[in-house]
Please model this.
Amino acid sequence: MAACTVYSTQSLKTNCFISTPSSKTHYGFHHKQIVLYTTSKRHNKRVNNPYVITCAASDSQTVVIGLAADSGCGKSTFMRRLTSVFGGTAEPPRGGNPDSNTLISDTTTVICLDDYHSLDRTGRKEKGVTALDPRANDFDLMYEQVKAIKDGVSVQKPIYNHVTGLLDPPELIKPPKILVIEGLHPMYDARVRDLLDFSIYLDISNEVKFAWKIQRDMAERGHSLESIKASIEARKPDFDAYIDPQKQYADAVIEVLPTELIPDDNEGKILRVRLIQKEGVKNFSPVYLFDDGSTISWIPCGRKLTCSYPGIKFAYGPDAYFGNEVSIVEMDGQFDRLDELIYVESHLSNLSSKFYGEVTQQMLKHADFPGSNNGTGLFQTIVGLKIRELYEQIVASRSESPVKAAKA
Model:
């Protein structure tokens, strides 16, 4: 026999979630009544059931951004550029696990989806699966926790320890203004994908990916060239099957390719980068060069832009991408002087900057970041500004909703 005690209170409309002791699931509902606790009688003893009721104001809902890419493709650098746009330094949780993958700033919280590995390193080896395989990941828990955070509810998120390869005890994640979920699978599960307010895919060509991975894993992690090649080849089938298809769902894709300015270039030092922007995305308007909707080819080198060999070339125009209408801005080559970037910035429109020269300022601020002299840094910075505008528009629309409802 069980009894439920209910206390009522007048409050703003809330999102409430019940966490039961036998399930990880959060049960959500909208109400002006708050259930405080339940009791039950067992063996003539009254026992309080440990049901946890958490409520959050509906107008405080977190904006969720998804960033997908393979390992070693620049996600960390992109995160640093993005959090910088919002202000504050992204740091690991204070006083927590030193091996935490989470980064927290004044406005944003970045969580690594590796934390939702259901198998540790040994378990994956025993089962013969890679971390890219969906069978090695807990998408149910990922969905439940991202949804809870989006609705303003704190969660105990697991931690995958990249040093030991083990699953560490969980850490508390409180709802931020902006939650960024970055990793291999942010758009793989349709339920998680539907929670995203905006999504980005970093699409690095095989040639460039190989060069980057050699630089990172040999210089920073002490891996041999042979082991890096073997790792790439072992991951490729799963990458093609589970990671790469996610780019069809992305609102923006940053595609990194070998240069076309140098015939038969094999060094991979000069890059051709394309910013592919989906049309018709709510709260997002694509960046364009010179004239919206036109097809443009532009070589800006000359009196106002210093360009050493092989120069710089920009292009812009409408196109189709996985059946969607898109606008593409392309940069091939690299800058000699970042302070001259403002000349290029002045010819780009819809940048969502707060003031003239903000893109150049952000690039100069992080001149030591990888890609700051080419299109990867430029387009990552621009997407960061677009996400800031998207966040501000979402917040503004939510604040207007109660006013419109009151007038109705």
Q: What stands out?
A: The mean pLDDT is 85. The longest helix spans residues 375-407. The longest strand covers residues 33-42.
